[in-house]
Specification:
This protein is an alpha/beta fold. Helices cover about 50% and strands about 10% of the residues. α8 packs across α9 (about 195-205). The protein is globular and about 65 Å long.
């Protein structure tokens, strides 16, 4: 969660407590707001254990599924998009075998394009077009309610063990290093290139074993190209 208003952080934490969710991570919060939120009524336990993370990558490192939330609006989204009632069963199925992060942006701007590049897909709450955005605490409450609404229904766990966000980010970083070593031209000409590459890697839906295998291959490529470049120099 990326939030600035202590009332909204507190409301989100209270919604988590209402529906039985306990792991809150706040990304680079405004310190006054974060400390002020800790006095929220009915959410003391959630806020007491809340983690303050410097970066989004740190916050989602152990999660093998990252779902962003968005009001849609007029943004040109580069992800698959699910309504909350359709996305909730997918998240529940994933939770049977791995950790999931549900990502909310700031009250004013929502998730940035860079934030979204860390997501596997996006979820939205249908609202009328004249008023697309919702209060952060209300959005958190609706999403979490949908997650528990049919929690007694049987779900089929996903097969295999999905790679964690930390593993996927290591692959992404190594791929960037390989592109840099190869002199790939788009690396320095497009502001959106980094996000496009990160989204591409996440769409592979790598399993843990496959992620390790791919990372090893990419590292060998980087080593070989770097060594070749040094020899020519």
């Amino acid at each position: 969660m990326d939030a600035r208003n202590p009332l909204n952080i507190g409301a989100a934490a209270r919604a988590m407590s209402n529906f039985g969710f306990h792991h809150l991570r706040v990304v680079n919060p405004y310190d006054v707001a974060f400390q002020g939120a800790r006095s929220a009524v009915g959410a003391a336990d959630v806020l007491a254990s809340a983690e303050n993370c410097e970066t989004l990558a740190e916050a989602i490192a152990d999660c093998s599924l990252v779902v962003g939330t968005t009001a849609i609006g007029h943004r040109d989204l580069q992800h698959s998009l699910q309504r909350v009632e359709a996305g909730a069963p997918v998240i529940r199925a994933h939770l049977a075998s791995g950790a999931c992060a549900l990502l909310f942006g700031s009250e004013k701007f929502g998730l940035s394009n860079k934030d979204m590049s860390h997501c596997h897909w996006l979820m939205h709450i249908p609202t009328r077009e004249e008023h697309l955005s919702m209060n952060l605490g209300q959005a958190v409450a609706i999403c979490l309610y949908e997650l528990i609404r049919d929690s007694g229904a049987p779900v089929e766990p996903e097969k295999g063990s999905a790679a964690s966000s930390a593993e996927v980010e290591r692959i992404t970083a190594t791929l960037f290093a390989a592109l840099q070593a190869s002199g790939y031209p788009k690396l320095n000409t497009s502001d959106s290139f980094e996000g496009a590459v990160r989204r591409l890697v996440r769409r592979l839906h790598l399993q843990t074993g496959d992620a390790e295998f791919l990372l090893g291959m990419l590292r060998q490529m980087v080593w070989k190209m770097t060594k070749s470049g040094q020899a020519k120099g």
